């Protein structure tokens, strides 16, 4: 009976090691994908790593498969940290969320008497008037 228990323990250890290897390869693939997408969007992947943050069952090509969610942090200039997420099924990227970073601020329009002051010290947000044609009924 001792040989059977030893064999079962060995099989369990091999299954754990195999699962760890598969997840390690998947994580390496997720790091490559995050690095490539950050470079594509002009972002800096901080800490050069991703972390497994979730698992969920998802329907993919008519089958239920396990989808992995990886979280990571990005920056535009190295001074800020924003969260990013990507979802993968196998080696396929199924979703990507990167933070919206405003890269350019439009110039402020000149102040006229009929528009409120929108200088940087004001808390007034200008609204455009909407004109409706009252004769048209839908």
Automatic annotation (TrEMBL):
Pfam families reported in the protein's UniProt record: DUF3301
Chain intervals for the UniProt region annotation (Disordered): 107-138
Taxonomy, superkingdom: Bacteria
Name of the featured protein: DUF3301 domain-containing protein
High-level lineage: Bacteria, Pseudomonadati, Pseudomonadota, Gammaproteobacteria, Lysobacterales
